[in-house]
Amino acid sequence: MEFRFTDEQRQIVEMVAEFVDDEVVPIADEIDHEDEFPRELVDELAELGLMGMPFPEEYGGAGLDYHAYPAALEEISRGSGGLGTIVAAHISLAGNMLYEFGDESQKEEFLTPVAEGTDIGAFALSEAGAGSDVPAMDTVAEREGDGYRINGGKLWISNGSVADTVTLFAKTDRDAGSKGISSFIVRPEADDGFIVEGTEDKLGDKGCPTAELRFDDLWIPEDRRLGEEGEGFVQALKTLNGGRITIAARSIGIAQAALDEATTYSQDREQFDQPISDFQAIQHKLADMDTKTRAARLLMHDAADKKIRGENFIKEAAQAKLYASEISREVANEGIQIHGGYGYTKDFPAERFYRDAKLNEIYEGTSEVLRNTIAAKLLD
Ligand SMILES: Cc1cc2nc3c(=O)[nH]c(=O)nc-3n(C[C@H](O)[C@H](O)[C@H](O)COP(=O)(O)OP(=O)(O)OC[C@H]3O[C@@H](n4cnc5c(N)ncnc54)[C@H](O)[C@@H]3O)c2cc1C
């Protein structure tokens, strides 16, 4: 594979990088400290067309391809890991569910405001007893009148407490295992019985609210079902597969931020009457950090390339996400090491990069589950 940005892709990524340097980086510590959903920043992203990057213009999107979109998300995540999750969950999970599986009228009514960024999206799959093991979910949707009555709860839902549109998974047939799961569009404001129980106090990923949701006799009409009954599990897997490319992007953005910060610090910090960047031990760390970050970026664009070509990209997306998330934590760890004692304090962002990086190894497929996926493809 040979990958080079076109002029148009490069211009978009440069525009996003400039926005991130001017508007996100200066308030990233504040977002981390306050842990509030950064509404104004999200509105600014929407004005720039960045809340609907990959969706066609007819649905309010920017029509970017899967090289430009992850590259832009990488830049956003370089500025703030929390903002990276907000955008990735909104676009790659909620938005893509509506785009891939919604009918024409569902796309017009629900995807367009999500792509324009006037509505915020969330993807509600995981439950207290069903994380990696999705079919273990307990949430049920029972037919009632010309719709469904939904009862149950979800855990760890990114954007869950601020979302206007939630793509929700529930069992329509409790005895059919993975084939008994269906997906629905829920509108928290309008639909009685949608309850936000609270948000998690997390290690990192601050600014993106991770919510616990409860559905108490929530009724929705039949035309809010996405696709047919029983298709929800396959829809979720397909959506998460594409989503993994963007979690690779979030990982790479955080790794790049950790590398940039450590490079600058190593040239400023003097010990033994010389910048610590003169020491070969520090140079080798920087060299490894850069090499791993570049390799992860190439894996991400390789998976994106296969997706754009319409080829099967399950293994490549899993590999890109697995590698990028693990090196992102390693690079952020070395970033702290290069900062010495200062790296362990909140005087520098090195520790934030480490906290933000760790999450990549957990959501949208843990590293262990991704290794299962890759091995299964190898042994197929
Ligand atoms: C900050 C945050 C945001 C999130 N956002 C969302 C969201 O927007 N929407 C959503 O639906 N979910 C979301 N999640 C949930 C996330 O996807 C799950 O946490 C993840 O899938 C793992 O599930 P679990 O936490 O139940 O861990 P478990 O599945 O209980 O796993 C625990 C450990 O066992 C290992 N394990 C489990 N099964 C296997 C296996 N078969 N083989 C080998 N090892 C295994 C895991 O790798 C892990 O190390 C989010 C989570 C977090 C922390």
UniProtKB/TrEMBL annotation:
Residues 6-117 form the Acyl-CoA dehydrogenase/oxidase N-terminal domain. Signal peptide: none annotated. Keywords: FAD, Flavoprotein, Oxidoreductase. Residues 230-378 form the Acyl-CoA dehydrogenase/oxidase C-terminal domain. It comes from the Archaea. Its cofactor is FAD. It holds the Pfam family Acyl-CoA_dh_1. Residues 122-217 form the Acyl-CoA oxidase/dehydrogenase middle domain. GO terms for molecular function: acyl-CoA dehydrogenase activity; flavin adenine dinucleotide binding. InterPro entries: Acyl-CoA_DH_CS (IPR006089), Acyl-CoA_Oxase/DH_mid-dom (IPR006091), Acyl-CoA_Oxase/DH_mid-dom_sf (IPR046373), AcylCo_DH-like_C (IPR036250), AcylCo_DH/oxidase_C (IPR009075), AcylCoA_DH/ox_N (IPR013786), AcylCoA_DH/ox_N_sf (IPR037069), AcylCoA_DH/oxidase_NM_dom_sf (IPR009100). Belongs to the acyl-CoA dehydrogenase family. This is Acyl-CoA dehydrogenase. It comes from Natronorubrum texcoconense. The lineage of its organism: Archaea, Methanobacteriati, Methanobacteriota, Stenosarchaea group, Halobacteria.
